[in-house]
């Protein structure tokens, strides 16, 4: 979707984003209601862990689309068409009224096999679809409910420095962590030259790089997409040798504090995971991220509909298809789960 490998998945992340199973959210405790009550959101000057003097870029998804390839327009918003999947570039709280007949035409034009989008943001009650968010304008360590979370944040801030990272500096610093993580997942990482070149050439607005440094060494990083008055986290990685310093807790806390005190609506790690939970799930729950319930909407191509009706995801495992197709099989299973979730609404 983007023009460099590291943030290729910055976006809605339905097909396997590292998404947290956070604590249950009280629908009445929204960021908007807190702001209406005049809740302060300023961090004391001597406790700000972030060295980012300027506020975040004000950017809409429509403006962001001008800088990205593989974009289609539908229902007044831009959609990514990357990897044959249509996803809105807008953040999930943005209301979208989709005409399914027009959607099927756009899918056919771009060869998409799946389209998915969120509606009914922050719906009352509990649903089978959610996004994991920090939307408390008064977010601070003393108000985090988990004692383990408060301890990890304080330790991380004592031993790490959290700051924005210049794009020219980011590629060189992040590559050792990124390449090691890719190999641990059985993937071949890009060369260091192409990785650094890709990060350095990212000049369009809305993408910001963050890092937690321990003794001047990058211990953890995340990319952030700042759009539609909200922030999407992506591609968070950390150095296993430095995790004892709790850089991840410091990093996510610092990011949330910075953006929330600058008046953004929320910071999200993405939607419900469709593949498998990761260690970040437990961490974000401890740090105070909560589930925001909503509705997922899905449209699939005729071929995908036939495959789903054949229940290939149910019986294919018995004949060894996961070992033959691997990543494609994971995508098939994710699509199957997504369709079953959509049927609950």
Set down the secondary structure blueprint.
Layout: H1 31-36, H2 61-65, E1 71-74, E2 77-80, E3 85-88, H3 100-110, E4 114-119, E5 130-134, H4 147-159, E6 161-165, H5 167-184, H6 192-200, E7 207-214, E8 217-227, E9 230-238, H7 247-261, E10 267-271, H8 279-286, E11 290-293, E12 295-300, H9 302-309, H10 312-315, H11 321-325, H12 327-342
Parallel strand pairs: 3-4, 9-10
Antiparallel strand pairs: 1-2, 2-3, 4-12, 5-10, 5-11, 6-7, 7-8, 8-9
Task: Explain what you see.
This protein is of the alpha+beta class. It is built from 12 helices and 12 strands. The strands form 2 sheets. The chain has a 7-stranded mixed sheet, with helices on both faces. Strands 1-2-3-4-12 form a 5-stranded mixed sheet, with helices on both faces. Helix 4 (147-159) crosses helix 7 and helix 5 packs across helix 6 (192-200). The radius of gyration is 20 Å and the shape is globular.
Protein traits:
345 residues, alpha+beta, Aminopeptidase, seven-stranded mixed β-sheet, five-stranded mixed β-sheet, 12 helices, 12 strands, disordered N terminus
Poorly predicted runs are 1-54
Q: What is the CATH first-level class name?
A: Alpha Beta
Order of helices and strands: HHEEEHEEHEHHEEEHEHEEHHHH
Q: Strand content of the residues, in percent?
A: 15-25%
Mean pLDDT over the residues: 82
The total strand number stands at 12
Q: Structural class of the secondary elements?
A: alpha+beta
Spatial ordering of strands, largest sheet: 6-7-8-9-10-5-11
- Give the CA-CA distance, first to last residue: 29 Å
Total discrete domains: 1
Helix content: 25-40%
Radius of gyration computed on alpha carbons? 20 Å
What kind of assembly state do the chains in view correspond to?
Answer: single chain
The CATH architecture name reads 3-Layer(aba) Sandwich
- Sheet having the most strands: 7 strands, mixed
Q: What is the number of helical segments per DSSP (H or I, 4+ residues)?
A: 12
CATH topology: Aminopeptidase
Name of the CATH homologous superfamily: Gcn5-related N-acetyltransferase (GNAT)
Shape annotation:
globular
């Amino acid at each position: 979707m983007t023009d460099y490998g590291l943030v290729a998945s910055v976006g809605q992340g339905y097909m396997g984003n590292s998404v947290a199973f956070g604590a249950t959210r009280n629908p009445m405790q929204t960021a908007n209601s807190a702001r209406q009550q005049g809740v302060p959101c300023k961090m004391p000057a001597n406790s700000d862990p972030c060295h980012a003097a300027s506020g975040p870029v004000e950017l809409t998804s429509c403006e962001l689309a001008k800088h990205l390839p593989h974009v289609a327009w539908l229902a007044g918003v831009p959609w990514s068409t990357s990897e044959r999947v249509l996803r809105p570039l807008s953040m999930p709280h943005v209301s979208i009224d989709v005409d399914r007949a027009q959607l099927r035409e756009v899918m056919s034009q771009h060869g998409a096999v799946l389209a998915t989008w969120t509606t009914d943001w922050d719906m009352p009650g509990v649903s089978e679809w959610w996004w994991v968010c920090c939307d408390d304008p008064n977010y601070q360590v003393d108000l985090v409910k988990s004692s383990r979370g408060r301890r990890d944040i304080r330790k991380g801030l004592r031993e790490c420095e959290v700051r924005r990272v210049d794009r020219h500096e980011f590629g060189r610093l992040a590559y050792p962590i990124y390449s090691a993580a890719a190999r641990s997942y059985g993937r071949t990482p890009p060369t260091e030259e192409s990785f650094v070149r890709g990060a350095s050439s990212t000049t369009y607005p809305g993408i910001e790089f963050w890092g937690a440094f321990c003794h001047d060494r990058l211990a953890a990083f995340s990319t952030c997409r700042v759009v539609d008055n909200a922030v999407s986290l992506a591609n968070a990685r950390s150095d296993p040798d430095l995790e004892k310093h709790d850089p991840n807790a410091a990093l996510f806390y610092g990011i949330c504090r910075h953006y929330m005190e600058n008046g953004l609506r929320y910071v999200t790690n993405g939607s419900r995971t469709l593949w498998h939970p990761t260690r970040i799930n437990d961490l974000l729950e401890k740090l105070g991220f909560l589930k925001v319930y909503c509705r997922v909407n899905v449209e699939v191509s005729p071929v995908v509909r036939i495959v789903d009706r054949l229940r290939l995801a149910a019986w294919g495992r018995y004949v060894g298809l996961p070992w033959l197709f691997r990543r494609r099989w994971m995508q098939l299973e994710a699509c199957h789960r997504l369709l079953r979730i959509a049927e609950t609404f």
